[in-house]
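#help-structures
NK: newbie question, is this the right format to request a structure? protein is DNA polymerase I
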Amino acid sequence: MSDADSKLHLILIDGSGFIFRAYHAIPPMNRPDGTQVNAVYGFTNMLARLLKDHVGTHFAVIFDAGRLTFRNRLYPDYKAHRPPAPDDLIPQFALVRQATAAFGVPGIELDDWEADDLIASYAAEVRRLGGRCTIVSSDKDLMQLIGDGVDMLDPMKQKPIGAAEVMEKFGVTPDRVIDVQALIGDSVDNVPGVPGIGPKTAAALMAEYGSLEAILAAALGDMKASKRRDALVEHAEAARISRKLVELSASVPLPQPVAELGARDWEAEKLLPFLMEQGFRSIATRLGMEAGKTAARPQAAAPGDRSAPFGAPAPQPEAATAPDGEAAKAAFGPYQAVSTREALTAFLAEATQGGIIAIGVETDGVEAIRAALVGIALASGPGRAVYVPFGQDLLAGPGLDPEDAIAALLPVLADPGVLKVFHNAKFDLAVLERAGVPAGTAPLDDTMLISYAQDAGRHGHSVAELSALHLGHTPIGFEGATGTGRGRLTFAAVPLEQATAYAAEDADLTLRLWHALRPGLRQTKSLSLYELMERRLVPILLAMEQEGVSVDANELRRLSADFAERMATQEVEIHKLAGRPFNLGSPKQLGEILFDEMKLPGGKRSKTGAWGTDASVLQDLAEQGHALPERLLQWRQLAKLKSTYTDALVEEIDPVTRRVHTRFAMAATTTGRLSSTEPNLQNIPIRTEEGGRIRRAFVSEPGHLLVSADYSQIELRLLAHVADLPVLRESFRNGEDIHARTASEVFGVPMAGMDPLTRRRAKAINFGIIYGISAFGLARQLQIEPGQAKRYIEAYFERYPGIRDYMESTKEEARANGFVLTPFGRRCWIPGIADKNGARRAYAERQAINAPLQGGGADIIKRAMVKLPAALRDAGLAARMLLQVHDELMFETPESEAQATAAVIQDVMQNAAELSVPLVVETGIGASWAEAH
């Protein structure tokens, strides 16, 4: 072999993986003739950067030739459950191949063979030639190829994947991955495997017996009797078939020899026309071809050199870059009001040329579903902002007709080459839709969510707060424009000059914040969190809010009457216990009754001299056996349910839709959880009879049913995952009762025939640990002595030392960084972690322990929410997502599709993330929320 051959380094790109990643990462965008090209844009962008930075001598992109291969003849159900490609993606496959050819890169595919088989065969040939092959993919099925001369690179994380990473994922070396995959199967590809065998069990079996055939032989021989052995015997043939399905063929006839895959510079004469036809101006500019120039590719590095990064660039819309220093210092105003179609058209042309526009809407109310559009503010650059009024009186005449303004704006909103920047895009898009703007504005960015993705819990995310923090500017603010108190004006009544100053400044600030904040997404490693989750949720949550949920007003009124009657009865009982009448809603009178007259113990006065009578005080007294505090807690609970739900929900029914429309706040919590407001539907008690009755009032429309899907014990599963708890992981994989297993491990009692009280204590510890429960708190919950509770917790940590290690390392992480990370990279800031006050600091430490678990759960359900609309649509189902309540999603579906809908939802949710323990989703179907839940 020549010296040149000895330096052979073939880069193989998993083309199908790139296509689907790009399609799901980038919102829909169309080229000038209307063809959708979001996947083509993402693929082209990724390929351009990879080619520009690659370190190989040879290069190829490998595609799947078709859906059916030899594996389907071997096992007809192989990949049978995979839905067909989305309709708007299918036309893009050919364009992606054109993009590959335009770059002068070989695009290789072969009928009857999967792309993975071609990759395996090329890797084997390079190994035979003594060279090196790098596979750019994170596909687990390709990890079996890793070994001498063959490695992988994760294009998203830009991290190499070698034997150590394979061992971490599968628990075995690459040469044994095939046998492990044969045992565990693959639900996505419909590879059967052996039921009940998970990755850890498979790895343990491999460690003990060495190969699949040895394991199956042992199952027929000296393996200890168990359910696992029975499963191996029963499903031995399925395991053997599974092995044939997952093993990649390394003997595929190569469509092109390796020698023909040499890397070469792209030709501008060939590439530039393709980019221009698609409307990809920014890619051409980055490659230095705007004037027909050819950007030279860097010299190939020596084998083994990883200094040049491989990248799957984050999906970026065609948008302007950051402004230069002088533009960034532009004055805030004075701004102008636009009153003619010609002036608006000219301004929009300027924005189109720049590739970016900030948009803000002004309305006569704060509820998007009812608010009327009063005006639109636009900004094309720092200091370049205008206001288009619809409601204010114009001195020069009647002003611009709203329909004319919308008509002028529509081409810009639909232009994939112009980035639309909002602050709280969900609200603005809802108002624009009601004003006649079609849904689907893209590409867009949301500065509120850009900030939230990086700094959840660190500070608020309003324009005013972010402007002061990042721009050093205090804006006029809404109250500065409308006034406060009784003298507050509706925005339509604000004088034009005043309205223009506020609204245009708001759009100007939004654009400046975009320039200031967006680069931080890369620096904080929050880019994928924002682009693949938070931003993609905007249209999904908007659709949920617009859909609303039907409630039975008569049932709510019956509940209100019942609650009122029960409250009256309880009030009489409480007055008897107190010895005299008093106002149950008065903390002052209650304190006097409890501590001055009844002389109950434990009373504490505030600085004002009043007795404390909050829920914790009443709970302590009730647990000591005092009847009046216990009755009062019950009365308060009924009063809260009546005022917050049964009375309020009737008033929240929209007179037009006859449904209740909650609003989902996307940037309100520290952990990434959504919150529900106006009305809040997330705090209805789950485990009480009254809460169940309220849920019965949430009903489906005639001919429809509600489907509820709820993650089971998701925070405990995340704890087992992040704290690396082998016992709990195994228990979750085997589908055991986790609380009984914990009781068995901690208290040393057998699981079979376990006393319910013992299980209840273990359950309290399991959930209490997540929230940093103290011995005193556990003692109060279980009604035992604090000393005994302390021994329970010590026994728990002794059995699960990984949990204590996790808690201590997480608190240390919070103290060192000011934030903790969820398993998916979300930053949850813990502001009080260094507080000098011990109580506040202890509370912050409990927050730090829980945030990665609660935040991880929020990330998982958001991932599922992003995927579900397309999954349901691809399955031909008409279900609509209505509500998200922490770990639960609720849908409304035609009655005939209920079972199929539940199955699709369960599959998507259970596969929303890959953990070391299985995600389990419980579904229910019913005519009401209570029945479905």
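mod (FA): yep, format's fine, and the tokens are attached above. The first helix runs from residue 3 to 6.
NK: thank you!
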